Amino acid sequence: MTTSPYAAKPWVALLNEAQRAPVAPDDSPVHALRRAVAETPDRTFLAYFDGTIGYREADELSDSVAGYLAGRGLERGDRVAVLLQNSPLFVLAVLGAWKAGATVLPVNPMYKSGEVAHVLEDAGVTALICSDRAWETYLRDTAADSPVRIVLTGCERDFQTRDDARVLAFERLPQAPDADDLATVAKAGHEAPGDRDPAPADIALISYTSGTSGTPKGATNTHGNIMYNAERQRTGLALPEAPVYFALAPLFHITGMVCQFAACLNSGGTLVLAYRFEAGAVLDAFAEHRPQYTVGPSTAFMALAAHPSATPDHFSSFAVISSGGAPLPPALVEKFRAGFGPYIRNGYGLTECTAPCASVPPHLEAPVDPVSGTLAVGLPGPDTVVRIVDDEGREVPLGEQGEILVRGPQVVPGYWRRPEATAETFPDGELRTGDIGFVDADGWLYVVDRKKDMINASGFKVWPREVEDVLYTHPAVREAAVVGVPDGYRGETVKAYISLRPGAEEDPAALAAYCKERLAAYKYPRQVEILPDLPKTASGKILRRELRSRPDGSL
């Protein structure tokens, strides 16, 4: 009987001793918070512009939120939806809900009314915590037809006084008569219930997918899933003691929730928040707080690099910078290093595996596949098994492409109340990612593209990522997205949407010719359209589906 090359975990040989060592995570983020309070109660946990909250204070404030929720009748296992940006209110709401024994639904603030209505109904949400503006503009009507019966609102200008007009240019609204104020509740001194500590197997989050292939489904991330990845990050990144994290990714996204919020809490560090991404405000926060770690999508680093005030000093405090949530072109890594110093470390994960299942360790740099030009996304961990299979589910040899499957402690048990979808996506507990990739002989994982995004041009397979990576080597290109569009002769043909760097000018035909010189004839884009900006999710991932649905290119 032939032994699986993936079961042998060739990547483990490249990990250092700390990264290979077994881990024993805390049972939940609540337990990690209590540990930090016992060890360093006065250390700053949250920094928000000119405001700070220490670990003891955060514990007391979130205790009060938990006591309020329990006092309003919230039971263990009930669902609490949190619809807030990166502010202390988000952190206190989530910790309070967990202390009350609840499951949190982190909801994208960019969701429209129908999208919010779906998750409130699908999860049977009991309590909603949101901004005062969202409640007044659309959430009151949305929640009226939902199971929600407890509402807390807050103004995200709370817990700071600087009121940076670039991101906090909104007024505090009068308190709604049908909701209570979150900051007031947090400072009221309510006692948290004493019998609702989360267990590792309890569902911490119901994280709804983006719904690219249908109605969004809720991945059930457990406390154990979260803490495993948080502890692997603590032991594997070799950050300084009490590290300063900057929340570049939104906390409602699984990357921000796990790799910033939970990992920082687990490390007893300081989490710097800046409401939402605005390149100038982010650079100022880097200069003020001198963070040592951040993670964000490649598009955020493109925007930071393009900002006229960006200098190497803005990035000089970082020990590790990671990228996740969107493909990372090799050209961007080198351009960023040449311009600002740091090497951006790739990573790979999904909501269904609680953010990362592979990453580039601090002591290594990711190789680039010489055939496709794809940058490796990293090495799986010692407890993770990544396999590559063909369309029939048979393992392919190392180096060959197929669908990426993941098994490990970070993989969720399934989807919320979707047994059929769970059985299809998690056969025998193994995650079928829907991504195409390969593992090389040394154990490096490469992601080629989404299976559903493959372009079939005259019978030839074209992976958009390969074309995009070539476009990113052009000095004028800031963002690139490649999609397949209908073609009467070829069935599908390749179309590229481009946004240019500030001050750059380039002819679409010249960009197509640039690709033609560097790619096989069937791969280069026959159509190129230049747009001011490309559409993105709140986490920074470029929306190919939106470009694909607009054949005339209008946005």
Overview of this structure, please?
The structure is a single chain. The protein has about 550 residues and is of the alpha/beta class. The protein has two domains: about 10-440, Rossmann fold, CATH 3.40.50.12780; about 455-550, ANL, C-terminal domain (GMP Synthetase, Chain A, domain 3, 2-Layer Sandwich). About 30% of the residues lie in helices and about 25% in strands. The protein has 16 helices and 26 strands. The model has no long low-confidence stretch (mean pLDDT about 95). Belongs to the ATP-dependent AMP-binding enzyme family. InterPro entries: AMP-bd_C, AMP-bd_C_sf, AMP-binding_CS, AMP-dep_synth/lig_dom, ANL_N_sf, ATP-dep_AMP-bd_enzyme. This is Long-chain fatty acid--CoA ligase. Keywords: Ligase.
Gap between N and C termini, in Å? 55 Å
- Per CATH, the class of the largest domain reads Alpha Beta
Helical content stands at 25-40%
CATH architecture of the largest domain: 3-Layer(aba) Sandwich
Total separate domains: 2
- What's the average pLDDT? 93
Rg, Cα atoms, Å: 23 Å
Q: Provide a count of the helices.
A: 16
CATH topology assignment of the largest domain: Rossmann fold
CATH superfamily of the largest domain, by name, is: ANL, N-terminal domain
Structural class based on helices, strands and sheet pairing: alpha/beta
What portion of the residues fall into strands of 2 or more residues?
A: 15-25%
Give the uncertain stretches in residue-range form: none
Q: State the strand order across the main sheet.
A: 2-1-11-10-12-13-14
Quick one: biggest sheet?
A: 7 strands, mixed
